[in-house]
Amino acid sequence: MTATTPMPGDVGADPHGHTPADLPDGATPPDPIIIEEDMPRTWPDRLRSWSRLAAALVGAIGIFSAFLVARGADPIVVFEAMWTSAFGDANKLGETLIRATPLLLAALAVAVPAKAGLFNIGGEGQLVLGAIGAVLVAYSLGEETNGVLTLTLMAVGGAVAGGLWAAIPALLKYFTDTSEAIVSLLLNYVAVIVLAWLVFEPLKDPMSTGQAYSRPLAANQNLPIIWGNRVHLGVVIAVVAAVAVWLALRGTRWGFALKVLGGNPEAARRAGLKVGLLGFSALAIGGALAGLGGMLHVSGLENRLRPDLMVGYGYIGFLAAWLARHDPLKSIGAAVLLGAIAVGGTGLKISAGLSGAAVNVLMALVLLAVLGWSRPAPKALR
Amino acid sequence: MTRRRRWTAALVALSLVFAASCGSDDSSDEAGGGGGTGDGDSDLTIGFLYVGPKDDFGYNQAAYEGSLAVEAAFPEATILQAENVPETAEAEAAMQDMIDRGADIIFATSFGHLEFAANMAEQNPDVVFLHQGGLVGDDVLDNLGTYFGTVYEPVYTAGVAAGMATETDKLGYVYAFPIPQTLANINAFQLGAASVNPDVETIAISTGSWCDPGTQATATQSLLDQGVDVITQHQDCTKTIIEATEAAGAMSVGYHFDASELAPEGWLTGSEWDWDDLFVQIVQTIVDGDFVGSEFNGDFRVGLQTGDNPFVQSPFGPLVDADTQALIEEIEAGFIDGGSPFAGPVLDQDGEIVWADGEQPTYDEVETMDFFVIGVIGRTD
Q1: Cβ contact A381–B2 (<8 Å)
Q2: Domain locations in chain A as residue ranges
Q3: What is the mean pLDDT of residues A35-49?
Q4: Which of A43, A58, A213, A337 is the least crowded, having the fewest Cβ atoms under 10 Å away?
């Protein structure tokens, strides 16, 4: 596999000849922004790191349990209710996967720019734009067009819209030296307002009797349901996207160049890499991935644009990316975990006598635990 | 540097999640047995979905209190509660979760839940779905129905109180979406006010949300800046607007819930839900096996003409004098006798006659209202 082939001049290669790709599954995920990821790893090292992770997660669950007790709920009841809601049967597992789908693409939208040392906090807005782009393509194609072609063009439309939205902070960064983190974050609010305007004004469903939403997609504009009543093809597409991103980052010159840029921008510049173009491409491709996520969500599940179509997905996706240390494959697991916690929130609402927002506390604790677990930086970097 | 960067990112991420969630600060509880374990031998399970929190001094709190009445009337039943269920496909997921926990009856209480309740009704023929405020028409599934009161009747009489009380002749109306129900309310409010004060006008502002306190505060301030001295609303959570109005020394007309404690000075009156009897009646009909073909298996509407309106006048505040209260009682008596807030002549904003002298719409016709009457400042599209 290309991913395991060390590249000539691989600045990430460590003195023992390991590349990050040599690490077996479950080893410490590489951190994209820092070079310490390529430090030598030995088995005792790994063992220590795993036990730290286990301790951290137990700690997170312990703190959350204390929080539950303080709120007058029985932690066992809560965890059982959450588990039932997230994984209790095939329906529930399906719901978790559906919820994880846009989260995964939003996580990839963070992971790709992060390889180049860039912060994309605009996943939420890029998801929204993707949904808008896909729906606009669907409306302009009409209901007569062939289904596969329609869905393909909708996916392209969503990705292009998300990519263009992410290109705004990228261009501003390279022409005016603004922070891509701040600009992409603020654009989330703009995106939501654009969506609200569309569903209140030009795209409002004439049959909506005053409600703010667009008219429904036609049957051939919906992703096929592949399992049960609700699980749509987007679940598979999201996983394929994650694998594709993983391959692209590991196995292409572009992915390698992003890593060089992320590791040391000055070195990248001196090595003759087109730093501006690389950073732009990372952000734009990240945005395109989120845009695809918006398309999958609207075409597979929501069926029309609504003002609160994507609320929270981009931000939870950001958490997923950090949980996975920006590793595309591990992002799959992180998205499913956070999707499960989000879906588990329903059970927590229904059965546990607790606020549904309490799941945000759990998400935060898990993230802090995983970040805290990260192995200490080598002495030289401290 | 790398550490600081990582922790900065973590902080950013956390604050974003909390920012995203604080807009939907929700809480919930199970009124029935703990942990879905059920209580008693009966396997009757009833689920209630709310779009907002159960303590919103408004729509959701009123429906929640109705669910407590059901719990009291059917002590053997398990009651499932889910608050802050958005009007997106997540509502279907929440309903599915309730069904998997044994729900036989589901009350979907927000206007925007209708589409999802209808989908779930089609997929789950053994579960009865009741929707609050929507319209399903005559050709309805055997396990679906909607219910609502004629909200505009007490809103009209509240408009009378507002028309008497205003000194600037400007009333303010904060609303969410221009759905027929809301348009009927705003029109009734203006018509009630104009019936005692021909110079009065009502400025209507949309927030685009059932409960967005930030936008509510802005809308309230904007109304106050335009010289409005009585503010009412069609929002789910009513607290922010009433508190801001009271703080500015203006007068409040409540909606959905008796919030007079929030406005001891400026509270005029309002209208509020009393779902207890209707909810119990609906559940009893289903338990008895009489739902199919019953009045609840369709669009059930009840008002002063047809029986006890579940939507009743709130207590009067100190600013409403005895004469006004007597007048309001008289008007109510007229509605009970078959009158309507929309008894003609009713003119739209362009001055065109909608219902001529001697005409009045039926309850069904009011449900499809799509215009503002003359005297309302605002647009319906």
Answers
A1: yes
A2: 100-327
A3: 65
A4: A43
